[in-house]
Amino acid sequence: MKKRVLTGIKPTGYAHLGNYFGAIKPAIELSHNEDYDCYYFIADYHALTTLENKEEMQEYFYNIACTWLACGLDPAKVVFYRQSDIKEDFELNWILANVTPKGLMNRAHAYKAMVEKNENEGIDRDDGVNMGLYNYPILMAADILLFDTDLVPVGLDQKQHIEIARDIAHNFNVKYGKSLKGPKEYIDEDNKTLVGLDGRKMSKSYNNTIRLFTDEKTLKKSIMKIVTDSRLPGEPKDKDCTVNKLFKLFAEKEEAEKFENDLLNGLGWGDAKNRLFEVANKFIAPMREKFDYYMANKDEVDEILKEGALKAEKVAREVLSRVRQAIGTDR
Ligand code: ADP
Ligand code: TRP
Question: Which CATH class name applies to 213-291?
Answer without folding.
Answer: mainly alpha
